[in-house]
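> tool_call: predict_assembly(chains=two)
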Amino acid sequence: AQSVSQHNHHVILSEAASLELGCNYSYGGTVNLFWYVQYPGQHLQLLLKYFSGDPLVKGIKGFEAEFIKSKFSFNLRKPSVQWSDTAEYFCAVFNDYKLSFGAGTTVTVRA
Amino acid sequence: DVKVTQSSRYLVKRTGEKVFLECVQDMDHENMFWYRQDPGLGLRLIYFSYDVKMKEKGDIPEGYSVSREKKERFSLILESASTNQTSMYLCASSFSETYEQYFGPGTRLTVT
């Protein structure tokens, strides 16, 4: 079964700091990759996705992610975070008709 | 705008009760999913469905069943609720071709 690892459980940052969240998956074949975000009190929503093509994908709210096939990684980045980026972030991998999620990373941005 | 709705935001049930969680989507999606979300474990897939009357087990189906009688509706059933089923339950739907899943707001179920 596919496994998805997110390296950090909780990240605390100050506004304007850069953010990078790690994600690694176990499957070596063709995968579709996603980052979802869950703001406090809101439902999960898609941040960005990678299916094929340019391995650097851009999503909403200034987020981007880089797919590195050789490292089985799909790390999420944002150059300068805002207080409103406080949320839980989930990496997900689609394979074999199913989405497998990482455990999630809680990001707290201090004003 | 895709909308996935769930019948309840909060639910409290007693051990041994039969529990129904309903999910409805309005985008004519073929696929529907039920997950549970627990701190430190992320989302885990319970069941999913490709089409009406079809269902497939996910990673943690034990203690749950599902029903999909209409394309837009997918129900999760806890035949005899137990305290270890206290969790946040999320429903999602997607088209077959795009894989992107749209999530409902979740139902926080407490079993006492």
